[in-house]
Design a protein that fits this description.
296 residues, alpha+beta, Extracellular Endonuclease, Chain A, six-stranded antiparallel sheet, 7 helices, 15 strands
């Protein structure tokens, strides 16, 4: 029997990606969404899914299955794949950052003796600590260190510079941190929480009415500063029979702390188009197969 699982609430795009970017810009300024708008809780898509995790995986420790377990739902892209102790990543040599990073969270991965104070940022690929020095940007983790307390090596691996991107300090230490904490809190309600994180370079409308993609670069290696960041969450139900999806996009700028994270939920197809990626390819049906239901 085919099973249908509801995704996280989706933000109505209106006229398209440009309209959505304008809407996010108003969110970071702290403006309120008009009353009565379709908004986040209007209508959400549902997707058919294959069975979730097998029962035999329930007691497996975080590191035993390695990248095979983390990539259970497929690769968003196939270029420059690297497997670390605690995550799998695809590195983009053009931007000197990752295209995406995927990690698997559960109660076992979140507990352990690891100490962040003993971790240092490690240079790899084509970016250096000097690129960030004096830039005004944090070295923002994509796979968060606090997600991998189960192993000191796993936590240390999150400090490779290929797992960080230039991030506005206010965003990194506030709203983005809140989103990371939300991901960890969801492990109390789901069997496994798969988190895919990455940078975006989205267009902005200029005075001439045209859309342009513009971003700063840092240091001698020209590390690209993302305009936005995304997180796609794959949430395995406790009964192991299906998954739910949630996807967020946040601008790489200060966000009013009063703006709830729910305002940044978007359809997963929005991120796929913007990033040129395909998420959960072995369970996700294309947009034409999606149906809509009224949110509870």
């Amino acid at each position: 029997m085919r099973r249908w699982v509801r995704t996280g609430a989706a933000l109505v795009l209106g006229a398209g990606l440009g309209a959505w970017v304008s809407r996010v810009n108003s969110f970071r300024a702290g403006e309120q969404e008009p009353q009565g708008a379709g908004g986040l809780l209007g209508r959400v898509p549902v997707i058919p899914v294959i069975p979730g995790v097998e029962a035999s995986e329930l007691t497996v420790s975080p590191g035993v299955l390695g990248g095979a377990a983390v990539m259970k739902y497929g690769f968003p892209s196939l270029a420059n794949i690297k497997t670390r102790e605690s995550y799998v990543t695809s590195y983009d040599p053009r931007t000197r950052t990752a295209s995406w990073v995927i990690e698997r969270l559960n109660p076992a991965s979140l507990s352990g003796p690891s100490d962040r104070k003993s971790c240092n940022f490690k240079e790899d690929d084509r970016s250096t600590n000097a690129d960030y020095r004096g830039s005004g940007f944090d070295r923002g983790h994509l796979a968060a260190a606090a997600n991998h307390k189960w192993s000191q090596k796993a936590m240390q691996d999150t400090f490779y510079l290929s797992n960080v991107a230039p991030q506005n300090p206010h965003l990194n230490q506030n709203t983005w941190n809140n989103l990371e904490m939300l991901c960890r809190s969801l492990t109390k309600h789901y069997l496994n929480v798969y988190v895919c994180t990455g940078p975006l370079y989205l267009p902005r409308q200029e005075a001439d009415g045209k859309l342009y993609v513009q971003y700063q670069v840092l240091g001698s290696n020209h590390v690209a500063v993302p305009t936005h960041f995304f997180k796609v969450l794959i949430l395995e139900q406790l009964d192991g029979r299906g998954v739910e999806l949630r996807s967020y996009v946040l601008p790489n700028e200060p966000i009013d702390e009063k703006v709830p994270l729910e305002r940044f939920l978007v359809p997963i197809e929005t991120i796929e188009r913007a990033a040129g990626l395909q998420f959960v390819p072995n369970i996700m049906k294309r947009t034409s197969r999606l149906q809509a239901i009224t949110a509870r």
